[in-house]
Amino acid sequence: MAKANPSIGCTVHQCKYHAKSQDNCSLEKIMVGTHESNPTMCQCTDCQSFQPEN
Fold this sequence. Notes:
Largest sheet: 2 strands, antiparallel
Number of helices: 0
Structural class: mainly beta
Shape: elongated
Helix content: under 10%
Order of helices and strands: EEEE
Number of strands: 4
């Protein structure tokens, strides 16, 4: 089981980096990016570290 990083909260259970035991990421750090040219809302940002759980 992946070790939870308490500094990175995450509720995306479909990500292979989700800690499973609690709503945290198991990565040491993540990359956050955007799919918009001028992001103005949180919906415009993405966790670019996301990998689908197989």
